[in-house]
Write a structure and sequence with these properties.
heterodimer, A: 73 residues, alpha+beta, Translation Initiation Factor IF3, 36% helix, 30% strand, B: 376 residues, mainly alpha, two-stranded antiparallel ribbon, 63% helix, membrane (chain B), Seleno_YedE (chain B)
Chain lengths: 73, 376
């Protein structure tokens, strides 16, 4: 698990979740990145951004109503 | 509709509005309905202006005494309640707060100061452009510059910190305030007149000027509810549009703003409301420098707060207590803007407009440089 980078964007205002995810994607280039999010808006923004730059997006609903977004390339 | 068909229809609505067509559709609806509201009575090129309308509400509540801009605008009430309805239907009503509310209050105030020096929020800047008011070009350039400055702060670690889940009751406070405003609009209580015969309030409605110009209450309210519903789902944001393009190279929201401008332009042409030029534009002045400067401040303040004034209303409707504090800051700030002679008038900038914009820029820059997330 240690090679998975985690971006915790919970509770942050726009555009910080998408911005932090984008920075992580650009830095990693490829691999697996986990983004923690708690708003549907941020979920849509991060998913759109990742898909547009060729990453595979899977979303896992968490028990507390937040999301764990796994990005793979 | 059968329950199943209704469920499928709502699911379709949700998928459509969260798709790339969502902001475009919302922009088209606003672009068509705003000039229609003007035709039905709203002030020219002011079918919807979140800042102007917050200012009118501030006046109606007696927070300022500019007699020509006092009215409780049903569009604002509709924006919040329409968003609330969408959030409840689609399970996005998530009360939350705790992300530097006091700073957001200040940002709301300074955003309004800047916007009232220009005479319009980003929504009205685009609507003024679509009505042929070329002064809006300087306002929009200022808005882009202000958003650009905000992006520099975002890139260098600016953050108002994280919000946290809050009790359900907190999310209902702003909708309750809006229902109260609606009641005050309908009842319009009057406690009599003073010795000179002027109404003493507590609610003031303009008898002349822009505040006296309004579409029928029910139509304004329904348009507000409809736009609030659409915008909650589509995340329509007139500042995020430019910000996301500059910061993330993402044109998702920008297409919504372009759709708004195009639809408003065509609707204005059809309704005979397109009057190109700089001089004698409705509720506007021709001071290019401060049309630009005012919107630099507004653009910066909106960017630091995470979205345009409309977006703050929609977020408040879905339970965001911090966005609600920003909205309260806008209304209180609008009161100050007139009492302290900050807001411009059609004859030009006021005595303390320019200096307040400069003070506001200094304060927003300090906020941009100092606000950071504090790790627990």
């Amino acid at each position: 698990m240690s090679d998975i980078e985690t971006v915790d964007a919970r509770g942050l205002s726009c555009p910080q979740p998408a911005m932090l995810a984008r920075q992580a994607l650009q830095k990693a280039d490829k691999g697996t990145i986990e983004v923690l999010i708690d708003s549907s808006t941020a979920l849509e923004n991060v998913s759109r951004l990742a898909k547009n730059s060729g990453w595979n997006v899977t979303v896992e609903d968490q028990p507390d109503g937040s999301y764990r977004v796994v990005l793979k390339k | 509709m059968t329950p199943l068909a209704e469920k499928e229809f709502m699911s379709f609505v949700s998928r459509f509005l969260t798709s790339r067509w969502g902001p475009i559709f919302t922009g088209l609806v606003v672009g068509i309905l705003a000039p229609v509201l003007v035709k039905l009575g709203n002030p020219s090129n002011m079918g919807v202006c979140v800042v102007c309308f917050s200012r009118d509400i501030a006046g109606a509540l007696g927070l300022h005494h500019a007699g020509v801009v006092q009215y409780i605008r049903p569009e604002i009430i509709g924006f919040v309640l329409g968003s609330l309805v969408a959030a409840l239907i689609f399970r996005e009503f998530k009360p939350r707060t705790g992300s530097a509310p006091l700073v957001r209050f200040l940002l709301g105030m300074f955003a309004v100061f800047g916007a009232l020096v220009f005479l319009g929020c980003p929504w009205r800047a685009y609507l003024r452009l679509a009505g042929g008011d070329w002064n809006a070009v300087f306002g929009i350039l200022g808005l882009i510059a202000g958003i650009g400055i905000g992006i520099v702060f975002l890139r260098t670690g600016f953050s108002l910190g994280r919000n946290h889940p809050a009790p359900k009751a907190l999310g209902w406070v702003m909708p309750a305030i809006m229902v109260t405003l609606l009641a005050l609009l309908i009842v319009a209580p009057q406690f009599g007149r003073d010795a000179s015969g002027n109404p003493v309030g507590p609610i003031f409605f303009s008898e002349k000027g822009p505040g006296s110009q309004h579409a029928p209450l029910i139509i304004s309210l329904v348009v507000g509810l409809f736009v609030g519903f659409l915008a909650q789902r589509s995340r329509f944001c007139t500042v995020g549009a430019i910000r996301d393009m500059m910061l993330l190279r993402d044109s998702h929201l920008l297409k919504g703003v372009l759709a708004l401008i195009a639809a408003a332009f065509i609707t204005n042409l059809i309704l005979g409301q397109f009057n190109p030029g700089f001089a004698n534009q409705p509720v506007a002045h021709t001071n290019a420098l401060w049309n630009f400067g005012g919107m630099v401040l507004a653009g910066l303040a909106f960017t630091l707060a995470g979205g345009c004034p409309g977006r703050q209303l929609f977020l408040a409707g879905e339970g965001d207590g911090d966005a609600a504090v920003f909205v309260v800051g806008m209304i209180v700030g609008a009161g100050f803007a007139h009492n302290f002679s900050i807001a411009s008038s059609p004859s030009g900038v006021s005595a303390f407009g320019p200096v307040t914009v400069m003070i506001g820029l200094v304060i927003c820059i300090i906020i941009g440089l100092t606000m950071r997330e504090v790790k627990a």
